[in-house]
């Protein structure tokens, strides 16, 4: 058994019942195997991979709050500070009933390499709660956020750990969290990103993950001699990432046929109407069943099904493991040329292997959705220098970062004899910088 396999076995044994974390570690270790083999003696002596797979700190805390009926509710809060070798911990907060420590660890682990790929000085972390903002009043969401921050504040700071949004955490939640941090700490600092524009947020952060995904996809297709313009796409999700991915896709001449939420999905033969989607999801916080009112020609279906719609490009933008082997077979049978991940780990390991084996260009989440966190780092820079850049300035920097990522992961894959394997390229390129920083900083 090689070093990589030994490390994976230890991770599984030490972290039982955390399948998503195991999956993320396995995917990473498998693809960096050639690097680990080349440096085995050094890595073994320094327990480099073992240290990398063990979070620097894991925090779990109680979040009590009072609902609108006067009933006390209790949720679990988490922050996993995974790796600070190249910068302060950075990564979102997820509020969703499915959240548990294994999910936060998978997200925090992937964040290390994603953040490294941006080329900016940010380490990896992630947090969240099993709280479900859906169906809660604004007052209930505020009560929860204030209680969450009343514990979290002692662990974070502008130079220590800078959380942001993720599933279930958008502008409203970030506002409540920021207000409570400022009140407790009596400090006005860039402790969170994704803030509103009136209190230190960056222009283009809202759009950044979706726009970045499309800049990435455009460049990835370009290096494969394919023009994105004129293509069709299927998108899953109807949240922050999906909405702005669809908007940018349309600006680039791509017709997007679908979107979905946790109960159903929409097929719009004329292309998804972004303004309608924004009103339904961002303004009214309603279900996609509403979409037909805006677009009578569209279809709404219960359950899942976007991957069965024939299109050139597939962009999973909802959640982990939403694209499985059966879906991958359908995509291949439909002649899909590229799958680029807007969500984190949306494609199962089996589906990823199948897509790669069948020649589908695969853009892994760590690289493809790094535009969100990259723009968060740009928000941190603006907060530090107490300036705000224009939308055009931020958007241009975002675009350049995504283009650089494509070329870096392509070169890293080639260097290790894995030409065209962008998942390997992303893991290797992201890992190399973190590895160097960890070795330079001694045994910590
Ligand atoms: N917001 C950001 O800047 C970034 C988000 N991501 C990832 O993108 C994905 C989507 O996040 P956001 O758009 O920010 O969240 P969001 O809360 O704005 O939207 C999530 C969307 O996914 C759908 N969804 C959630 N769970 C689902 C399930 N079990 N089945 C089907 N649909 C489901 C929701 O209905 C919603 O439409 C997540 O994987 C997140 O980790 C990745 C990078 C940055
Ligand atoms: O903007 C950030 O700090 C976090 C974004 C995020 O959670 C992610 O990249 O998955």
UniProtKB/TrEMBL annotation:
SMART domains in the cross-refs: ELFV_dehydrog
Binding residues annotated for substrate, in chain numbering: 90, 111, 114, 165, 376
Site, Important for catalysis: residue positions: 166
GO function term, MF aspect, one: nucleotide binding
Domain Glutamate/phenylalanine/leucine/valine/L-tryptophan dehydrogenase C-terminal: 202-442
Keyword Nucleotide-binding applies: yes
Domain of life: Bacteria
CDD domains reported for this sequence: NAD_bind_2_Glu_DH (cd05313)
InterPro entries: Aminoacid_DH-like_N_sf, Glu/Leu/Phe/Val/Trp_DH, Glu/Leu/Phe/Val/Trp_DH_C, Glu/Leu/Phe/Val/Trp_DH_dimer, Glu/Leu/Phe/Val_DH_AS, Glu_DH, Glu_Leu_Phe_Val_DH, NAD(P)-bd_dom_sf
Residues of the active site: 126
Annotated family: Belongs to the Glu/Leu/Phe/Val dehydrogenases family.
PANTHER family: NADP-SPECIFIC GLUTAMATE DEHYDROGENASE 1-RELATED
Subunit field text: Homohexamer.
NCBIfam families: PRK09414.1 (NF006929)
Protein name: Glutamate dehydrogenase
């Amino acid at each position: 058994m090689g070093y990589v396999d030994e490390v994976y076995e230890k991770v599984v044994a030490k972290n039982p019942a955390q399948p998503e974390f195991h999956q993320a570690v396995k995917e990473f270790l498998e693809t960096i195997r050639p690097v680990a083999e080349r440096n085995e003696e050094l890595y073994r002596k320094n327990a480099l991979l073992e240290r990398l797979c063990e979070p620097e700190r894991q925090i779990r805390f109680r979040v009590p709050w009072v609902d609108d009926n006067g009933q006390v509710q209790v949720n679990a809060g988490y922050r996993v500070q995974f790796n600070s070798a190249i910068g302060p911990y950075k990564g979102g907060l997820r509020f969703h009933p499915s959240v548990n420590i294994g999910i936060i660890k998978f997200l925090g682990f992937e964040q290390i390499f994603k953040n490294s790929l941006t080329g900016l000085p940010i380490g990896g972390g992630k947090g969240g709660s099993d709280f479900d903002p859906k169906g809660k009043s604004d007052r209930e969401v505020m009560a929860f956020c204030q209680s969450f921050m009343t514990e979290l504040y002692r662990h974070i700071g502008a130079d220590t750990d800078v959380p942001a949004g993720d599933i279930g955490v958008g502008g409203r939640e970030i506002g409540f969290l920021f207000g409570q941090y400022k009140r407790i700490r009596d400090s006005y600092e860039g402790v969170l990103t994704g803030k509103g524009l009136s209190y230190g947020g960056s222009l283009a952060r809202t759009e950044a993950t979706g726009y970045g995904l499309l800049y990435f996809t455009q460049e990835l297709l370009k290096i494969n001699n394919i023009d994105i313009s004129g293509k069709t796409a299927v998108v899953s999700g109807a949240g922050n990432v999906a909405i702005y991915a669809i908007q940018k896709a349309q600006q680039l001449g791509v017709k997007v046929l679908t979107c979905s939420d946790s109960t159903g999905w929409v097929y719009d033969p004329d292309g998804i109407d972004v303004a309608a989607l924004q009103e339904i999801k961002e303004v009214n916080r309603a279900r996609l069943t509403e979409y037909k009112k805006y677009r009578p020609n569209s279809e709404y279906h219960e359950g899942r099904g976007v991957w069965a719609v024939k299109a050139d490009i597939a962009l999973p933008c909802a959640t982990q493991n939403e694209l499985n082997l059966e879906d991958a077979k359908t995509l291949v049978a439909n002649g899909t040329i590229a799958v680029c991940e807007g969500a984190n780990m949306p494609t199962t390991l089996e589906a990823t292997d199948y897509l790669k084996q069948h020649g589908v260009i695969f853009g892994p989440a760590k690289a493809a959705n790094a535009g969100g966190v990259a723009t968060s780092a740009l928000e941190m820079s603006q907060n530090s220098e107490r300036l705000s850049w224009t939308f055009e300035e931020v958007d241009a920097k975002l675009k350049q970062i995504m283009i650089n990522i494509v070329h870096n992961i392509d070169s890293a894959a080639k260097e290790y004899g894995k030409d065209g394997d962008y998942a390997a390229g992303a893991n290797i390129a992201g890992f190399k910088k973190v590895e160097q920083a960890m070795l330079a900083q001694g045994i910590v």
